[in-house]
Amino acid sequence: MPITLGQLIREARLRAGDMTQKELAKMVGTSMENITSIENGRNKQPSPEIVTGLSKYLDIEIADLYAAMAGTLNTYPWERVGDLDLKDPELELMFRQVDRLLEGEAKDRVKSFIRFTLDEERRRRRREQEDKQKQSE
Predict the structure, then answer these.
(1) What distance in Å separates the CA atoms of residue 23 and residue 100, rounded to the nearest whole number?
(2) Taken in order 13, 14, 17, 23, is the CA torsion positive or negative?
(3) Distance between terminal CA atoms of the chain?
(4) β-pairing, 84-85 with 80-81?
(5) CB atoms within 10 A of CB 2
(6) Virtual CA dihedral for 43, 48, 54, 60, nearest 10 degrees?
(7) Which residue intervals define the domain HTH cro/C1-type in the entry (predicted)?
(8) 22 near 32, Cβ under 8 Å?
(9) Residue closest to 45 by CA, chosen among 96, 124, 82, 54
(10) Is the dihedral of CA 82, 121, 110, 13 positive or negative?
């Protein structure tokens, strides 16, 4: 089932340290009522300026926001690394095996590698997004 824009915004806002709708609205430059209507599905097509602000302050790629608006977003951005879906059955099996078979330092090394890879991917995406914004200015 596709993820709606409202679901995406609400989940991202809460993942950002329990940010309130009022706080997000102030950062984006809109009203709390507008954020509420987006999250509740009453405003399914916010303005490009609002979408850009949501992307910036919630650290979501604009393409993911528009995919949610179009009803084609099937996984949350934080559940993917690049083109990799973290809910992929093969990955889930690997994670279960790591949890079951590895202990102590070996398990810590795998976790550290995954954390490092995710952090690198987030930094790369952020740099790409900043470069695109600079080019459009």
Answers:
(1) 42
(2) positive
(3) 36
(4) antiparallel
(5) 12
(6) 110
(7) 9-65
(8) yes
(9) 54
(10) negative
With beta carbons less than 8 A apart as the criterion, state whether 73 and 79 touch. no
pLDDT, tens only, 42-91: 999 999 999 999 999 998 889 999 999 999 998 888 777 666 666 678 87
Main-chain phi, psi angles of 19, to 5 degrees:
-65, 135
C-alpha to C-alpha distance for 22 and 79, rounded to whole angstroms: 26
Q: Three-state SS for 81? A: strand
5-74 has CATH 1.10.260.40 classification: yes
pTM flag (> 0.70)? no
Write down the domain spans for the chain.
5-74, 80-136
In this structure, are residues 82 and 120 in contact, taking their beta carbons and an 8 Å threshold?
no
How far apart CA 38 and CA 40 sit, in angstroms, is 5
Predicted local confidence at residue 83, as pLDDT: 60
* Gap between the Cα atoms of 104 and 106, Å rounded: 6
